[in-house]
Amino acid sequence: MSHLIKSGNRTLATKMSLIAAAVLAASVPSVALAEKLSEHKSAYVPADQTNSFLDGRVEVNFLALQNYQYIQAKAGAFRPEDEEQSGGFGRLRVNLQLKFHITDNITADVDIAEEPNDFGNNGDRDFSFHQDFAGIEFDLLGLTDNKRKDADLTLRLGNIGASPFQFKGFQDGADNQGNALIGNGITDYATAENGIQLSYNKRYDRGMLRAYNVTGHMTTSSFGEAFQEDRGYNYRLQGTLEFAGGFKAGLNMLQANQGDQLRFNNGVASLAGVTTTNYRFGDGENYNFSASASSERDTHVGALPGLEQTTVQLNLAYQPSAETSLIFMLGQSSDDYTFADTNGNAVAGITYFGSNGVADPDGTTFDSNQVIKGDSSVDYWVVEAQQYLTPKKFYLAARYAEAENTSDLIAQNDNTVTRLQVGAGYWFNDRTLWKVEYVNQDEGINSGGQIGQGFDGFTSELSVKF
Fold first, then answer.
1. In the chain, what are the domains?
2. What average pLDDT does the segment 376-393 reach?
3. Torsion angle (degrees, nearest 10) of CA 185, 186, 189, 193
4. Whole-angstrom Cα distance, residue 354 to residue 341?
5. Which of 79, 155, 166, 333 is the most exposed place for a label (fewest CB within 10 A)?
6. Comparing 161 with 22, which gets the higher pLDDT?
7. % pLDDT > 90, the chain
8. Which residues contact residue 39 at a Cβ distance below 8 angstroms, ignoring those fewer than 6 apart?
9. If 0-12 CB within 10 Å is exposed, 13-18 middle and 19+ buried, where does residue 312 land?
């Protein structure tokens, strides 16, 4: 009997040991998981790395920006209510940027934005996301089994970004961290249209010349669709050289071909129903005025109708390090047509004083919807500097731009727009940037400036990028 008890105890002990071992074995992953979850880990990847998903096939960026401004139009502005503005916060800007790697040599991208700068019409009630920029890109050397480490040839279909400037930062909605300042430029002539683009890049490991680029594109003059009779195409040709030591040079030419749409009556043609090129003003800015919609392009020079527009610009940059940047831009933009009042009298820009649509210095303000034949042109130059006082942390920046309305039918006095921007930026971390800026713009009566006398004040932005 005792033998059976001892044997039973051994059997029970063996069973208990097996159960304990099984429980311990099962608990090891749970303990390891608990330890792993208790470890402190960053909630995001560093800013110099890509937020990628699905084994790297999808890249995602999310951007958000809140701005505050205290800006006033100067006495004598076209719209008197702009002279007495209150300080305040602007609408939040947000962008969701997605990039899809379809194959090793084909990618697609889309920027979805709630951007008052572009989509703020309809009484500023349109709080909706829109396709702001999208396209498909083909690595042609890779597709033809000729892929090289030192060169690439890329075909892009869809939205094509067009601008004559290079090397300086640009601001588009919440996408602002590449722009040292807050405003863009009075003669940026930047936008996006639909079409095709071919770009070739070549790089060198040694020697004075380190890289060059040649890019050409053809677009229709619309971000949507435009198929009306005699609507032409817009073209851009760009060349860039990069040298050892941080010196860069670029030359750009933009050409619009939209004048055949015009129908003249007694020497005057209406712009009603006519598709003009989107880069006749430039993209929207985060300076806003109470008398106009947030998507208005009224801070830029508005001298050109954008029909047979030609823009040629030289860009020079000296960027010896990540802390220092000096940029100089020199250009001319011209058109074969000039804005006019309803009687066919030439006016300096799209916005002008008038009475019943006829130019009159003592009248109200109108936006011209008529053009006449006559060369209009703007000569301009820009200088910009940025210097980090604390690397990757704190910088100072400044930009000065001057644009002269040299149109044939416009009086050549009091015909200049100038803008001075002085700002600073502070990085709280590698994804959060706070910028402040003082801006002062002066507009001569014959300059094509759309505020009337200019504006000045302070503005600030706090932005994050995931």
1. 56-465 (2.40.160.10)
2. 96
3. 70
4. 8
5. 155
6. 161
7. 67
8. none
9. middle
